[in-house]
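Consider the following assembly input.
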Amino acid sequence: MSWRMTCLLACWLPLAAHAADIDPGKDPVPSVMWAFYHKQMLGDAPFVFDDRVKLLAPPFAEDARQVPLEIDARAFKGEVVKILAWAELNPLPKIVDFQPLDRVLPWLSIRIRIEQATPLRAAVLTRDGVWHVGSTLIDAAGGGCTAPSVVRTQPGWEEHIGEVLGGRYPRNEFSRLRVQVAHPMDNGMVSGIPEFYINHAELKDLNDQLLARLELFPAVSENPNLAFDIEGAGQTRLFIRDTSGNEFDASIP
Amino acid sequence: MRWILLIMLSVSLPAMADLEYSLKPRQIAEDTWLLEGSTDNFAKANGGNIVNTGFIVTERGVVVIDTGPSKRYGEALRKTIATITDKPVIQVFLTHHHPDHVLGNQAFADVPIGALAGTTELMHQQGDAMAENMYRLVGDWMRGTEVVLPNQTVTPGVLSFGNHDLRVLGLGGHTAADLAILDQRTGVLFAGDLVFYQRALTTPNSPGLSVWLADIATLQGLPWKLIVPGHGPVSSDPQPFAQMRDYLSWLDQLLQEGAASGSDMAEMIRSPIPERFAGINLNRYELIRSVSHLYPRYERGQMTRVDSGASR
């Protein structure tokens, strides 16, 4: 055994021991797929089911194509590396990979499509290497992922791609930032229409300092709605890229 | 084995017999009968009988207002009418296109089924999807139910049926095509779902709460003596109008203020509901639905174009 291997092993052992110590607790929702997603999304890393990660959704989806989700990990402010969210029983489960970097609170609201009643998860990776998993259940009549696009029925929709509606709404210690981007977010599940969706977004300040980074996935609703809570004043800029390489940007005053 | 069969029979027979709407007609005015549904949500326990339907026995024949949530309900309604009068059913009016009001049409296929042009259009667009959802919600009660479109377009005005002159109004706050009927002989106002009473109103097709508020004012201004809401108990005092106005105004203001402060939908559905609405059935459930239906319009009203393409 080379000294390098030994060294690696020595480094690994305490970590492995640490992980084995964590009791994940009881899954708060009935799930047949947790083990699969633990492996697929979190790479079998140590985790806890943690009600300090609040994943808030309506108890049922009134419109399965536009289901509001709120992910609130403010209990871990300053500790968050990234937040992953997914809908377990969706054909395309992944929703978002959100990295609040600077001044952006670990809080996000987003709207998604769901195909059927499903457990929803938001997993928050903290700096100590542990995933904190918030969970909820949502009921649905279904069909949100395979429903024909609403955007594509509107004449001239191509002209409006990348248009952004937005606003800043001052609260006490932070500002709420909201944006709605015109985009069909085609998920490839509607016959004859290939994948075409916004897959990357960044928030920056006026000095080009990166505030937050997002990877978006096809479970996100068409005309995506996003909201962030940001500390401090000053204009915020949003940069967006879709799977066809189109780039858009916006400045929220 | 025989025992098991017997046990299964004794369990399953009553279960099948249970799928019977025991409609109890109640006379609410001269010649006028009401079949009052519960103020609950669609469920397998109630077969979707959450709606008020009614009929007027005129000299010429029977005028039916709404046909209920299923073929089975429509048939039960028709049988119930036959226990009250020998006169034939000569006219059906549909107040609007929602499934709980129109899916009994099959039992009246031999009668003119009248509705506003907009109602027929909406039934054409959404009827099958709504019927499908009803199968999901109430199950076997729906067996055999299919959408039957109206075969007569109603023009608002006064229509005479023997000794009853019916004033038909074409309004739109609930679904954009809402029919209300005032019987000028008895003063009974069939308000359809423009009026919910002690049951939270529903907004899936509402063009806007201000339109609905204007409709309430129009209805209240009519010479009515008894209000028959689409859902909830009848009333001879104007309380249903007051409750509608109060609730609609509250909802409008809630959504307006939420959008102005940048709240998201998931936050809006958790808004506190005032104590005075505690007696209104399903208020939280319908708030969740209404936020989904209406809030997008309010929030867009509080956002501006911010993309760099806007200035080009």
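DSSP finds three helices and 16 strands in chain A. Ask yourself how this observation constrains the way the partners meet.
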